[in-house]
Design brief:
Elements lengths: L2 H5 L22 E4 L2 E7 L4 E7 L4 E5 L4 E9 L1 E5 L2 E5 L4 E4 L5 E4 L5 E8 L3 H6 L10
Length: about 140
Amino acid sequence: MTDRDTYFATDTGAAADEARFVDVAGIAPIEIVPGLVFRPVLGERLLVNFVRFEPHTDAPVHTHDEEQVVVVLEGEIEFDVAGDVRTLGPGEAIHLPPHVPHGARTLDSSCSEMDIFSPPRRALVDLMGTATESPAE
């Protein structure tokens, strides 16, 4: 069996839910602090959060139980990961294991990024006003 065949093989499981298409722009924004807006898409075992930082916006250093991957989509952002401060631009990513202190801030430009959490970030799910169900379109 080739890598292609292995990757595109069909499993024998049954889907628990139906797939859904999501218009990210149509998701009700959640403004955490002035200039920091979240548009989360909740799945069963992960959460993808589309994040917009306006210039000079700060997300304080914090930790959480969930694993996280951050992907910068546009603009620049300064990340502090356990004291290691770096500026990231489009196409750059960070993998954050659970409990690693991290924070971010923008300087003179805005930034759009995508945060992926597994399992879904409990604090954000709570802010969405749901406990376990996926949001309606």
